[in-house]
Amino acid sequence: MDKLVRNILAELRAGNDLDAKALDRIVRERSAEEHDGRRVYAKKRILPYYLSKRAEHGALWKSWAVDEDLDERFVKTLQMKPRRTASGVATITVITKPWPCRNNCVYCPNDPRMPKSYLSNEPACQRAERNRFHPYLQVASRLRTLEQMGHDTDKIELIVLGGTWLDYPEAYRIWFTFELFKALNDSPESRMSALSNPDRIVAQGEPMRDIADLESQHAINEKAAHRVVGLVFETRPDTVSTDALRHLRHLGCTKVQLGVQSIRQKLLIANGRRESVDTIRNALKLTRLFGFKIHAHFMVNLLGATPDSDKADYRSFVTDPAFVPDEVKLYPCALVDDTALVRYYRIGGWKPYSEEQLIDVLSSNLLDTPPFMRISRMIRDISAGDILVGNRKTNLRQLVEMHVRGLGSPVHEIRYREIGTQDVEMGALSLDEVAYETDGTSERFLQWVTTDYRIAGFLRLSLPHGDAVAEYGDAIPIRGSEAMIREVHVYGFATKISRDGESAQHRGLGKALVMRACEIARQAGYARINVISAVGVRTYYRKLGFVDNGLYQTRDLTD
Ligand code: SF4
Fold first, then answer.
1. What mean pLDDT value characterizes the chain?
2. Mean pLDDT throughout 137-157?
3. CATH 3.90.79.10 fits 426-556, yes or no
4. How far is the CA of 186 from the centre of ligand 1 (A)?
5. pTM, two decimal places
6. Among the four 11, 21, 365, 430, which has the fewest Cβ within 10 Å?
7. Class of 257-415 in CATH
8. Secondary structure element (H or E) that encloses residue 101, with its range
9. According to the model, what pLDDT value does residue 501 have?
């Protein structure tokens, strides 16, 4: 392996950029030389080997004579899945312990080993089960994997899934979140020790923690090596209330995933969902007024739906001011064993759309999605083996995008336009502003775009309507005179917090967005502006003149 690493370094030193084919050639040549071709080096082992020598074997590392530039090129060349951090942050998804749900939706799986609606074959669930659903162990093991794959992990988005977060006891929620932060704050040695002796960690149970304990972990995380730049919880619309949202903010939450699924009352009832369309409207309005980003789940092909009703409902969902979420997970309904939907399927009451119908519906959805909205996925991560009937194609999104390209219609949705890992010509970027209305706020979506409308960064600014805020009185922690920055995102590889990257991050794009948001809010007559900052970016906002102010950071706009 040592010689193989030296060969790759030599090629890079000679100025050759190595694509997958060139790398394969070197690996094959080296394997042929050392093992007569009988054994081939596994490419996925090269980077972990290199990183372990860099960390632990000073003499060998020195003998390779690697400078900073070469080191960076080597790591980039060997990264297995560079897109995983192409959106600017490394994501860690964790799953809460098995838990029931008060609803019993007809399509929802019942796997007693998992929280309701999850199946043990889903990748994140397998990781959770291996780590016995312990938050510390899940974070520590995922972090180790990401590092072994060569990703920068200084900026982390934590996504907590497991059906309905707000159905779990409050004590569990605080303990769970405390452990998430602790795992990121602890030393690599502590994490390694926990992973090598998980029984010891699990045996500690779930000791009582309070918000003060959690806040002390938050404070540590502000300067930690792995900072939380986003914290997401998944819940049902009927659990949303002013108290619940305050609690989520105390935990450090910045984004809420809401299981909406449908905005047609008839379909909600037919599919066993107990919340009404009014409940969904109120949940979205309140969550947005609190400043959270809203990531909504929406299903097509539900029991009782038709391709036409799905197209019409989605169009309303993304244009009616009562809804307009920021992100959407589009889930085509699939038939899973041991669900009530199986009965309907057997008697002909439900059947899956054909592939052609599904692509037609999703293409219409994609084309209807406005430029300030992101479709994060188009399928659920259920393994093909668990799907009795319905879509099993994991590349469904690609098929939909191909179809849409064939139609020649423009796609405005964010994910389609993301620059990903591309380098950005700063001079070619311009700041575009999109205004839209919601129940309760006037929204401004500010986006850095290239000449061909690719997106390099964006900011979501909410200008709350005074009457909507007044409706909630003191139950809501903002005033009608306060604007809210709900999200700032700049694309590019997850570059190190302390050093400049080559891509769009750290070139002042974020700061320029924030300054423009302040200007817009001031001109609109707002006296102050809040930002719903994640714990790990508080220091960034302090540098931009924001001060800590309870659940948010705030800047005066009157000076
Ligand atoms: S609300 Fe969600 S978790 Fe509960 S039964 Fe319905 S789909 Fe499943």
1. 90
2. 91
3. no
4. 35
5. 0.86
6. 21
7. alpha beta
8. none
9. 44
Binning pLDDT at 50, 70 and 90, where does residue 194 land? very high
Query: What DSSP line would sit under 42-64, residue for residue?
Result: -HHHHHHHHHHHHHH-HHHHHHT
Q: What is the mean pLDDT of residues 293-314?
A: 98
Q: Is the CB of 177 under 6 A from ligand 1?
A: no
Pocket residue to mutate for ligand 1, from 236, 302, 331, most atoms within 8 A of Cβ: 236
Nearest-angstrom CA–CA distance, 47 and 226: 20
Location of structure tokens 């792995």: 226
Shortest-distance atom of ligand 1 to CA 164: 3
Nearest CA to ligand 1 atom 1: 103
Number of Cβ within 10 Å of residue 341's Cβ equals 25
Do the domains 257-415 and 426-556 sit in the same CATH topology, yes or no? Answer: no
Atom number, ligand 1, closest to the C-alpha of residue 104: 5
Is 259's C-beta closer than 6 angstroms to any atom of ligand 1?
yes
C-alpha 353 to ligand 1 mean position (Å): 22
Q: How far apart are the first and last CA of the chain?
A: 62
User: pLDDT at residue 500 above 50?
Assistant: no
With H, G, I as helix, E, B as strand and everything else as coil, classify residue 236: coil
Comparing 154 with 30, the larger pLDDT belongs to: 154
